[in-house]
Amino acid sequence: MSALAQFLQQVAALIGRLSLGKRITLAALILGTVGGLALLMVWSGGVDLRPLYSNLDADDAGAVVNRLKEQKIPYRIGADGRSVFVPSESLHEIRMQLASEGLPQGSGVGFEVFDNTKLGMSEFAQNVNYQRALQGELARTISRIAEVEGCRVHLVMPEKTLFVDQEQPASASVAVRLKHGRRLSQEQINGIVHLVSSSVPRLSPDAITLVDHTGRLHAGNRGRNAPGALSVDQLDYQAQVEKSLEGRVKSMLDQALGDGRAVVRLACAFDFQRLEKTEEQYLPDNRVIRSEQSLNENSRNTEPAPAGVPGVRSNTPGSETLAPPAPGAAAAAYEKQDRTVNYEIGKVVSRIIEPTGKLTRVSVAVMVDGTYKQVAGKGGAVERQYVERSAEELQKIEALVKRAVNFDAERGDKVEVVNIPFQSADWVKGDEAGAPAGWLAYLGEAAAYFKHLFVALFLVLSYFVFLKPLVRWLTENSMGAVEIVRQLPKTVGELEHEMAGARSLPYLDQASQLVASDGDASVGAVRNWLKQP
User: Fold this and answer.
1) Which distant-in-sequence residues (6+ apart) come within 8 Å of 128 by Cβ?
2) Would you say the pTM of this structure is higher than 0.85?
């Protein structure tokens, strides 16, 4: 205790001899060292937490937290209340274990609603639970799409009837919440629509409405109330035709001029009107007898016919009678001919339906780069000089483009080819760009192993670079510093140095003792020295 008290007195005397600036520096040094060591100990001893799940619903978050509590796994809930963090070294193991137990379940309830079916449940309750389960399962499946953050599905399933003509079709509404900065492609929209229609009986794809969290309609009866409006299929068809023609021209120019030496933009105009025309033409030169009717009558009588004036007067006595016809006179004859001919005039009846989506015009804009040649610049440096393409080359390129797009001047097609110098840029290949990402990912995975090494390295550098020079500056020119150092226990190195100094002899005495102890070996060593050149 007396030695400790004496040491403390000497330290107090040393501090008392320091100036005010050195006292403040010494206090800041001690506090900073203690605080830094405390922070390093807390940081190095803390658990590295990584997000297990993000953007969870309240039910899923509660189920995951309860399961982590049961397994006594350390966790932390995020500030938003929808994220759960677990230790990074067991992140994947915990995620696979929860997935095997069906967590998180996602939005809504699925077919697990039938796991605890009560006895005596009515048919109506079973139908309601089946509809809820089907909606929940569809919502979970749609939520697995990369661009979808959450989903809700509403189904309208009418009751079945005995008569088919009285059955009402089913309908569905799907509301999706997209991730920030993401959007659904047309293929994904069609996939969602056909997924729902294939899962529900009597549900047509036309009876499904798909909207996102902004209220934008992606699928449904849009455009039906606006006669003449272009449908999504028509716009897709136009985009596909433009993309196909543009790719045809671009691939041809890339092979002829070089990759990236031409820019092609193409626009098409279509007529989507549905035209149906019926035409009937008569051919006057084409006459065909359709029907013919002929009637012939011929009557002849050779016997004399009664003659005279008919009546009472001719039959009374004394009346004048008509003279009989002279012998040899010709008998009366009757002849009748009737002919009716009906002709059919030839005609042509044609029913013409114009194709939907008729191409009416094509406009092509092509921008090509020139050529470059190496020229000697200032100081002997080689520079690139831009050379414009000739008018003949541009005409050849224009002719090739017209052939590629099936150019028709009568249709109003236009093709424009312009020679413009491109801006040169240094492109980074995909392999080289992806290499740092791989190293960063590797360092991120090994961060937990480098933590303790970083702490040790920081302590060593802090001592040699900052702490030791600062202590030397504080203790220099201070009276009594040597006395305090002498009072401290001696190190093993100091003790060995003192003992080696006590046993040390002059070099001549050491050589004499070595020759006297082993004369033969010494003589051999001297001979070898003399033989060496």
Assistant:
1) none
2) no
Q: For every one of its 533 residues, what pLDDT tens digit does the chain have, with 9 covering 90 and above? A: 677 777 777 777 777 777 777 778 777 877 877 877 777 776 666 667 788 877 777 777 888 888 888 888 888 888 777 788 888 778 888 888 887 776 776 656 777 677 777 777 888 888 888 888 888 889 888 988 888 888 889 998 888 777 777 778 889 999 998 888 888 888 899 899 999 999 888 888 888 999 998 888 888 765 454 555 667 678 888 888 999 999 999 999 998 888 888 999 999 998 887 778 888 888 877 777 888 888 888 877 656 666 666 666 666 665 555 555 555 555 557 778 888 888 788 888 888 887 777 888 999 999 999 888 888 777 777 788 888 889 999 999 999 999 999 999 998 999 999 998 887 544 434 444 444 445 655 666 666 566 667 777 777 777 776 667 766 766 665 444 444 445 555 555 666 665 555 444 555 565 666 666 666 666 676 677 666 65
SS3 of 238-296: the string is HHHHHHHHHHHHHHHHHHHHCCCCEEEEEEEEEECCCCEEEEEEEEEEEEEEEEEEEEE
Specify whether the CB–CB gap between 277 and 355 falls below 8 A.
no
Contact 172, 209 (CB under 8 A): yes
* Sheet strands side by side (includes 217-219): 148-156, 170-178, 203-212, 217-219
